[in-house]
From TrEMBL:
Domain of life from the UniProt record: Bacteria
Organism of origin: Oceanicola granulosus (strain ATCC BAA-861 / DSM 15982 / KCTC 12143 / HTCC2516)
Name of the featured protein: NAD-dependent epimerase/dehydratase domain-containing protein
Keywords annotated in UniProt: NAD, Oxidoreductase
Pfam families xref list: Epimerase (PF01370)
GO molecular function, a single term: oxidoreductase activity
InterPro entries registered for this protein in UniProt: Epimerase_deHydtase, NAD(P)-bd_dom_sf
Entries under SUPFAM superfamilies matching the protein: NAD(P)-binding Rossmann-fold domains (SSF51735)
Length: 275
């Protein structure tokens, strides 16, 4: 491809994707409100821009074929704090992509779009929205917008409902929810390279024996995860304290399912990990 745009490029996952995306296009435009975390790649340009400001975002997409939209606040916050980057920012990306004739948006959605679903139901990619937080609600908003822009304007979208993406599983919940960095890179690559996708939802999860979700309906993406959190089970299971009444243990959203609206869910995940 001639040009790919990556938002949220200074975040943990965006930073991890930079080299992969740079290898897939003649030009990579990386953007964030922060400075880059490492030296720029040979074909990479860095632009500081605010997702909530259309006049800053729209020009970056000119001439691009795809945008990989990973920019957002990645925790539960009061609605007013999420409105700009997570809600308006998503609209700005889709609208700018439409205006400039992009083919596809690859979007970092989240398991929190269905975070109140039970772990033991074995949900798939047709599961209706059931957000656990304002953060999860923003993901529902963007997914629905992605479907609408496909059906009304022909702009393709792949919405990746990412679980717990870390270098290694951090706690017993991650035995089901972990997404390795290697599998993340493969998933995004497949979301870009698949010839036609229309509007597609896929779960960002590794090949975990205990995964509470299924990607069986989206096999056409060719995503075949390589890593399995079960390799850490012997270490992580003794740390668990089973409580069937604790929504953090029984819902796919984990601690986000239990926090009050507007309060940090990341803090609960850190507590599970003993950090």
């Amino acid at each position: 491809m001639k040009k790919i745009v990556l938002t949220g490029a200074a975040g943990n996952l965006g930073h991890e994707l930079r080299a992969t995306l740079a290898s897939m296009a003649a030009e990579l435009v990386s953007t964030d409100i922060a400075e880059p975390r490492s030296e720029l790649l040979a074909n990479e340009t860095w632009v500081k821009a605010d997702l909530a400001e259309m006049d800053q975002i729209a020009p970056l997409l000119e001439g691009a074929e795809m945008v990989v939209h990973f920019g957002a606040i990645v925790d539960e916050k009061p609605f007013e704090e999420l409105l700009g980057p997570n809600y308006i920012g998503a609209y700005n990306i889709w609208e700018a992509a439409h205006r400039h004739g992009l083919r596809r948006v690859v979007y970092a959605s989240s398991i929190h779009a269905v975070g109140l679903c039970e772990n033991n139901r074995g949900i798939d990619t047709d599961e209706p929205h059931r957000p656990d937080t304002f953060y999860g609600l923003a993901k529902c908003f963007a997914e629905d917008m992605g479907r609408m822009y496909w059906e009304k304007r022909g702009l393709e979208a792949v919405c990746l409902r990412i679980f717990s993406c870390t270098p290694e599983p951090q706690n017993a919940r991650a035995l089901g929810s972990w997404l390795s960095y290697r599998d993340l890179r493969q998933l995004v690559t497949r979301a870009i390279e698949t010839p036609t996708v229309g509007f597609t939802v896929a779960y960002g999860v590794s090949a975990n024996d205990r995964a509470p979700v299924s990607n069986a309906r989206v096999g056409f993406l060719g995503y075949k995860p390589q890593d399995n959190a079960e390799d850490w089970a012997e270490t992580l299971l003794p740390q668990a304290r089973p409580d069937p009444a604790d929504l953090a243990q029984t819902r796919v959203g984990g601690p986000f399912a239990t926090v009050a609206l507007g309060e940090s869910g990341v803090a609960g995940i850190k507590a599970l990990s003993g950090k």
